[in-house]
Amino acid sequence: MTAMVEISDARKVYDGGFEALKGVSLSIEKGEILALLGPNGAGKTTLISCICGIAVPTGGQIRVGGHDVVRDFRKARSLVGLVPQEVNLEPFEKVWNTVRFTRGVFGRPRDDAHLEDILRRLSLWEKRDAKINELSGGMKRRVLIAKALSHDPEVLFLDEPTAGVDVELRRDMWRIVADLKAAGTTIILTTHYIEEAEAIADRIGVISRGSLMLVEEKDALMTRLGRKELRIELQERLDAVPPQLAEFELSLEEDGRVLVYSYDTGAERTGIGRLMTRMTEADIVLRDVRTRQNSLEDIFVDLVHDTGTDAA
User: Fold this and answer.
1) N or C: which end of the chain has fewer CB within 10 A?
2) Which residue intervals define the domain ABC transporter in the entry (predicted)?
3) Is 240 a member of any domain?
4) What pLDDT was estimated at residue 309?
């Protein structure tokens, strides 16, 4: 595959010495969806701003489609569509004019049929003659997405695109992202909705305090870091975990009626068989057994738990 976005040792230091990006290196392939996760202030928006030319990196190199974002700014920027966090639209302009103007800004020829298709996919066609200040917050977010798609970008950045919007828009967004991926568009998504990353991303990147902690295929990450819980419902409650079971590091929940055993799904042996044998030896009768798989959210929280956050 061909790298569409190449980031090498990117750094960003603001006035006053705050280092928002600390040598980030990352290669994003053409046509893939990368979800960038991180707590508030982790550096997600700063990184996107540097790639899109909104902020200038103070070190390293960033290339989009082979074009340096500093030296070849216009060529690099023409390949990029950005849906920002903040809604910043001309309040008295009509939806249709807003989207068509953005396409013209990027020097693309007039294509009303293409813009109509975008507005219809975003359920905006009936609002095309409405002024921005007449729209709901969710509709304004849709206009931002339409603007970002208006010039047929090869790389689309979605910076918290569905934060605070309705479920319908979120579903529309997922569908549009799937269509764009099928057409070969490279998509970088930042989100606080972990289920979005888990549902649509090919790879997951985790950033904290300006450093990229890991980038890995989603399924591989879930397998490598995912753990399962075995929840054992007991016939009779226990006051404490019996000494015979101490080696399994069990926890006792639900007023002593559930034993919880956490184990690594990638381990050669889970220890479950041995645990069941020891429970029988201790005359502990179980009523039911269930398992629970760690979600991406659980993994994310574990990864950033000890790093803290800075404002960025």
Assistant:
1) N
2) 5-234
3) yes
4) 42
Residue type, 57: P
Name the 3-class secondary structure at 156: strand
Is 69 in a helix, a strand, or coil?
coil
* Domain end position, chosen among 223, 243, 276: 223
Query: Collapsing DSSP states into helix, strand and coil, what is residue 288?
Result: strand
| For residue 307, pLDDT beyond 60 | no
**Number of C-beta neighbours around residue 167 at 10 A:** 8
Residues 208 and 237 in one domain: no
**Token code pair at residue 32:** 């893939």
My answer on whether 103 and 140 are in the same domain is yes
Summary mean pLDDT of the chain: 87
254 and 160 co-located in one domain: no
Going by pLDDT thresholds of 50, 70 and 90, the confidence category of residue 310 is very low
State the Cα–Cα distance between residues 80 and 48, nearest whole angstrom.
11
> Residues 191, 265: one domain?
no
pTM comes to: 0.74
Query: Reading across the β-sheet that carries 251-253, which strands appear in turn?
Result: 251-253, 258-264, 227-234, 286-293
* Cα(293)–Cα(312) distance, integer angstroms: 33
What's the length of the chain? 312
Q: Structure tokens of 48?
A: 């996107």
Residues 6+ apart with CB under 8 A from 218: 35, 197, 198, 201, 202, 203, 204, 296
Evaluate whether 266 touches 224 at the Cβ level (below 8 Å). Answer: yes
